[in-house]
Amino acid sequence: MRNLKLPDYYINRELSWLSFNERVREEAADRNNPLFERIKFLAITSSNLDEFFMVRVAGLKDQVKAGFNKPDNKSGMTPMEQLLAISPRTHAMMDQLYRILNKSILPQFAKEGIRFLKARQLNEYQREFIDSFFHNHIYPVLTPMAVDSSHPFPMLLNKSLNLAVLLESESPGEEEPLFAVVQVPSLFPRFVQLPNPRLALDFILLEEVIREHIGTLFQGHRILEVSPFRITRNADLTIHEEETEDLLETIEQELKKREMGAAVRLEVEAGMSAAMQETLRDVLELEEWDIYRINGPLDPSFFFRFYNLPDFDHLRYEPYKPQTAKDFLETNDFFQQIAKKDILLHHPYESFDPVVGFVEQAAEDPQVLAIKQTLYRVSGDSPIVHALVRAAENGKQVTVLLELKARFDEGNNIVWAKKLEKSGCHVIYGLVGLKTHSKITLVVRAEADGIRRYLHLATGNYNDATARVYADLGMFTAREEFGVDATAFFNHLSGYSITPTWNRFVIAPYGLRDKFLELIENEIAGSTPENPGRIIAQMNSLTDQQIIEALFRASMAGVKIDLIVRGICCLRPGISGVSDNIRVISIVGRFLEHSRIYYFQNGGEEQIFLSSADWMTRNMVGRVELLFPVIQDDLKERLKYTLQIMLNDNVKARVLCPDGTYERVKRNRKPLLNSQMLFIEEAIQNAAQDDSKSVLPHFQPIVSFPQD
């Protein structure tokens, strides 16, 4: 029996994530993308790296500091080995990122009349402008911080931009160089538009304006050097829920500490002197490999704001308005439509408005008795939360399971929790030790023939903002067995009831992994050379070793497996005799692929499930997740078609190779198929046609791999 735990069969989790971010960076380099979309991908790459260092690298550093040197279960790498492997990859990624910015994007900007200038490049009129801007706006809020025996190095906030200043006194006899820090204020835009009578758009970075006037802050001193730097800190929260009486208050306190965690990365301008780098490295207790010398503006995530610059629509994707699903085109009565049949929505191709409208109608409908909903990440001005508030004010029983521990959304969720509680909603924070990641809304309504339950179940968050850029699936249903499960689900999370026996739902951490293993083993048992088993799964990440081992066994039994994994994939495909029947692709494009679809051939009685859960260990044992079957035949056909289109994408898809690298799908003279663009075109056509003329072709069962 082959040992399926060999490290050679697995890709390290952190290195796999870096591969994903490299695919995002490739989109910044792709000249087929509009120019402003390329700069947005560059900003995303930078922002992703920030979070990677704040959480993943910080965690590895903590393990090394604690003397923990046990290899990880899959790839067999110790924490220190992982850090040593991460460092050259991230340094190379940053070098490539700035090469794209400096050699490709900024020159293209210049051709469009957009320039980022240094102080030395300003004309007299522009120089007068920044002088006035500095003295009237910036100077009053700056605080120069001396660093010496009586002034310790200041505690600089996580991800803040700062200037390191080396200076000497002009007074006779004081020749020892002095060191100071000036924090670039975050309340001003990072880039300042300069006056230009020639219609060109000239900008200067805020730190450049401050550097040009730094002498104003240090009267009586000569400035020897001024260099920007930026610190990334450990930002993971440590919460002992068992010892916490008030989770909301505890998280509020921990959020304040996040800005002051241990330094894990130092970014400096490439021209910073070695002496100044050494000073910063020593005071921050970092290693040489923790320093990133940047050939360009630090923290290019500021280009997110630049992306929306007006009058440059030709440099962005053509605007797309999500289409209203046919089932809701001619009626505002969501309950009437959902009572007829199950309804599937594919965002952002189809509008998220019906999801908001469903909750809003429930809030106002006098027949609605109760609304229960899970919230993980919501938008800054969430219409769904406002609807829940109105529902409570209208006297309905409103229960909201709001996850306070949604990473980097904790502060936003605390605000909403307080608002909901104030309005009369019952707000609960889930189970101790578990994040509630499920996406479910239950509406209980009194009708002529009795109580009826209406549900919305989804793969993505109840966030109207991200629903415009995340590719997700949601399903409305009024099936009685689903409603019974939904009631039991909320009662279990809010009270003391034992784990229920489910009709249709499968819930983590109470058997979700076992269900997936059962489905995979079923494909193995029914697979023959003449009729091989078939598994297709789309998810964000794949890390769970037990599921990977089961997929290896399935591949060895002849089951044909296609995995659409956007991000991390620890499974190494294409290993002879182990995973040679497994193909893994990743699609990185205009929208963030976020759906979780699981297809099993099941001897011809096909089963399709949607879920909030990836095939990650944390989803199986550390979160409350929901898996539900799609039963209605037309919805199953639609999901199979959706999977088929993604598997045949030859524009934005990359194939995972056995060595852990990714290659673009070979086109071999096929017509180009960009799955996301096709879904846009089909959504527009379907919204304009009647049901008898649907553009969705009949789905052909997937029995073989798409040919590269």
**Range of strand content:** 15-25%
Number of domains: 4
What is the third-level CATH name, the topology of the largest domain?
Endonuclease, Chain A
Distance linking N and C termini? 32 Å
Helix content: 25-40%
Notes on the structure:
With 708 residues, the protein is of the alpha/beta class. The protein folds into four domains: 1-107, Up-down Bundle (Methane Monooxygenase Hydroxylase, Chain G, domain 1); 112-243 and 261-286, polyphosphate kinase like; 326-503, 2-Layer Sandwich (Endonuclease, Chain A); 507-693, Endonuclease, Chain A (2-Layer Sandwich), CATH 3.30.870.10. Helices cover 35% and strands 21% of the residues. The strands form four sheets. Strands 14, 18, 19, 20, 21, 23, 24, 25, 26 and 27 form a ten-stranded mixed sheet that branches. Strands 10, 11, 12, 13, 15, 16, 17 and 22 form an eight-stranded mixed sheet that branches. Helix 11 runs parallel beside helix 12 and helix 14 runs parallel beside helix 15 (545-556). It is globular and about 90 Å long.
Quick tags:
708 residues; alpha/beta; Methane Monooxygenase Hydroxylase, Chain G, domain 1; polyphosphate kinase like; 4 domains; ten-stranded mixed beta sheet; disordered C terminus
Task: Offer a quick outline of the entry.
By secondary structure, the protein is of the alpha/beta class. The protein is built from 18 helices and 27 strands.
Task: Draw up the topology in text.
Blueprint: H1 13-29, H2 35-65, H3 79-111, E1 114-116, H4 124-138, E2 144-147, E3 161-169, E4 178-183, E5 191-194, E6 201-205, H5 206-212, E7 221-233, H6 247-258, E8 263-269, H7 274-284, E9 291-294, H8 303-306, H9 334-340, E10 343-347, H10 353-364, E11 368-375, H11 383-393, E12 397-402, H12 410-423, E13 426-428, E14 435-436, E15 440-447, E16 450-458, E17 470-477, H13 480-494, E18 506-508, H14 512-526, E19 534-539, H15 545-556, E20 560-565, E21 582-587, E22 592-593, E23 597-600, E24 607-611, H16 617-621, E25 623-629, H17 633-647, E26 653-656, E27 662-664, H18 675-688
Helix pairs in contact: 1-2, 1-3, 2-3, 10-11, 11-12, 14-15
